[in-house]
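Example with several molecule types.
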Amino acid sequence: MRLNKNGFLRFFCVIICVLQVQFSFGQDKFVLNGNVKDQATGEAIIRAVLRIEELPSLGVLSNEYGFYAISLPRGKYTLVVSQLGYEKYKEQLQLDSNLNLTILLKSANTLKEVVVESGRKNDNLLKAQMGTETLNLNTISKLPVIFGEKDILKTLQLLPGVKSAGEGNSGFYVRGGSADQNLILLDEAPVYNASHLLGFFSTFNSDAIKDATLIKGNGPAQYGGRLSSVLDVKMKDGNNQDLNVNGGLGLISSRISIEGPLQKEKSSFILSGRRTYADIFLRASDEFKDNILYFYDLNMKANFKIDEKNKIYLSGYFGRDELGLGDAFGIDWGNKTGTIRWNRIVSSRLFLNSSLIYSDYNYNVKLKNGLTNFNVNSNIKDLNLKQDYTFYLNPKNTLRFGFNSILHTITPSIFSGTVINSNPKKGRNGLENALYLSNYYKATDNLSVDYGMRLSAYSLMGGDAYNIYENDLLVNTIQLNKQSLGKTYVNPEPRMTANYRVTDQASIKAGYARNVQHLHLLSNSTASSPSDQWIGNSYNIKPEIADQLSVGFVQGWKNNNYELSTELYYKNLQNQLDYKDGAEINTLADVETAILFGVGRAYGLELLWKKKEGILTGWVSYTLSKTERKITGINQGNWYNAKQDRTHDIAIVGVYTLNSRWSISSVFVYNTGDAVTFPTGKYSIQGQTLYQYASRNGNRMPSNHRMDLSVTYDKKRKKRIQESWNFSLYNVYGRENAYQINFQDDPKDLSRTQIIQTSLFRWVPSVTYQFKF
Amino acid sequence: MMLKKYFSTILMGIFLLGCEKEIQLPLDPNQSLLVIDGSITDDAGPYYIKLSKSNSISASSNFLAVTDALVIVKDNIGQIDTLKHEKEGEYKTNKIKGIYGNTYYLEVQVADKKYTANATMPEKVFLDSLRINPLAINGEIRYNVIPVYTDPISLGNSYRFIQKINDTLDKSFFVFNDNLNNGKVNQRPLRGGSDSLEVKLKDIIGIEMQCITRPTYLYYYSLNQQSGAGPGGGTTPANPPSNIVGGALGIFSAHTVQRRQVQIK
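Resulting structure tokens for the full complex:
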């Protein structure tokens, strides 16, 4: 521990030294700052590129609130601002004092062939962060999706390094990590279960979403808490110019959103809701009239501009799933999140965002049998305070620092009902704190380095007693008071990425990051289930640690209209969890008696070839990867494939714009089947056939592939009304992809074993009607 | 898992898209192992220990019997019983008696390999009655049976139920413990997995209730959790944890037995 603290101190010294050098240069300068916004809607524009024509090596991005700051010596400059989908903005400036400038970008007519501007050449390189993908919501809207419900999580799965948790499933695995190792944030609030209807839909209503960024394990120091990735989803702010209504009608679900100004140009709101209605059809049929199955969700956001320097954002999400069979069985689950944020421009160079975040995920199971009933409920609640400072020190250094303090209240499955006698389980609390500091350092025209350190600490808190086990034997029990702190795990998490521009169209990247995870998902099933439960660190469960090393190369052609990016990564995982065979993780008095610990490793090659502009756009992504675990007590302690280990993963995505009305898009995916365990033999016990297994996950499901097609028709705009139709066909050639494989006695010849494959979706057509006025 | 069955019922209901077909898969070669299927019960006896060999998936399920083994069962009160091979790998006890609270030690020697196991027979918990539990879903009445018994005050009782519907064995493994309802009258029905038989009006349901040891519970519970491979499957399957030492498959159980039957009406 002492060594680690020393390491941290040394790191601070280095940062301070670097800063002092920079301070001596940083005199006699003025700051140009302000916000970048969409002219028509007032939406903040994230990651717009700001350049000064006279200083070609300088490039600055607007932050996640659209704020930017550049410090420059006195002089005359030409400011150029660009962002994909917007017309280029150019303005002459005379800088004699600090200047606040709001930049309004005009949406480009995307259907016109966009002329590639030479000024944009380097933008991709500037934005090319290690292991980072940003999803453009416009691209998503054209892609074919199952049930006609566009979904950022499903589109993400078409990117290299991201694997789907199953066909039609919104769950995902990043670079060999498990599903719970993704930090999914909706306006900074963690979403603990990002899926509806057992994964077939995600919790993200694309109408309410502005932007989504996925960082594959190389997150900057302000992010932490999960090993594999950060998915940072930002809700729209709402139009502050006009009132707009837009919505969509689909076969399975419909959605509507309203956005508009509360005070023109000063404050706005957006309200967006969605509900599935398959249950209404089910109710009409005799065969399924008792089946209950629906979800709904609601996104709300409002922002208030107090003055030029202060802005408040309120955002909230509420979603619920209901599933049941008459009154015999029911399960409902959902997330609630709420965020209050205060953006403050403290000085021309210092931007501060303070957030108070609430997140709650719970599920309830009800079983009824005549007079008896049985309930299970489980809950995880977070209260989170965050302060994040961005300090635009000088053109070469942008510092980011802050803290984050989360109080977790974790209540595992609690049973109640007429048959339940006792359930000694209580909830537990945990306090997760983090301090971070990072610096984006533009060393030369061609070299930039983002380096930093996050110091995370997790303190056990009271609630249920903590049992300590050694070799499966209880050696001690510790009972903490609700408010007092027990053991604290402190972990320094160094992070670094570097980007070197070789030519105008090529760059090399490298990165290292350590991530630490203090919350763990207990799931004993291969498919995601709402009843999977979270558990915090304890005296037995130590924080999970991942160290990832990655290198990459980006090459563009034809003014970067074509781009090939390559990344190689190696990841080492510590303190990974699994369960003993036959563990009853829900009903055990102390689930920690059933947990096994071990290590993991993952490595791979990711290729992404993109065509960004023109009549035909799209990408081809390919991942070659391996992910393994080694856990004492499983597979005789030998390395074995993690279930999400898939050797090859290919996605081809194309959008072909026929004319201003019609466009066609198609997706093709191919991947090696999941690593699974098939029996090698069989035997008989009391007249029943049982199966004999050898090594864990040594077999493969058959490989998956399918193609989807979709056609979008944008109707000519009539006055204010804009309408469009989308027709899609999922699984065009009706491939029967294996969802499950079972071994069973052949009913016609009991001495023979049959292998039965279950597939889910063949030829799923859908129609969605969209409107906006 | 019980929840899983509900989920699939509901999902199939909504999507109506699931389709099944028989496929061929390349499978790893199998190492044929000794299989021990033995139990000592509180019935009068004799009791049988059955020995066979496991086989590859593609081979026939008429398993090879092991007929030349030395099988000995001892108990903690000094009885030693060397079993006699009767037929098709079944070895019969001569004198040992199944008594509550006694521990039974099994020794099996095949060629020069030795396998051992032990089990302590639990106290008998009385099966009071079988209650029929009708459930109306989607206009159809489904039936299952609730075995009515009072769990003893002490924690740690485990039960297994074997269900026969009109004399046909239901392939689900029904095992209960008292983690949640210690000391209470059982109200949980026998609700099987997807390969469970459907129970109709007029059917005769035969139930065998066994009070089993904790390792036997774990053995059957693990089997129950394994349902197919793939994204739609359950827990990753493995050979269930067994009380047999020496590398054989199977289970050696000491349990009590009670049988009752009821007609659905």
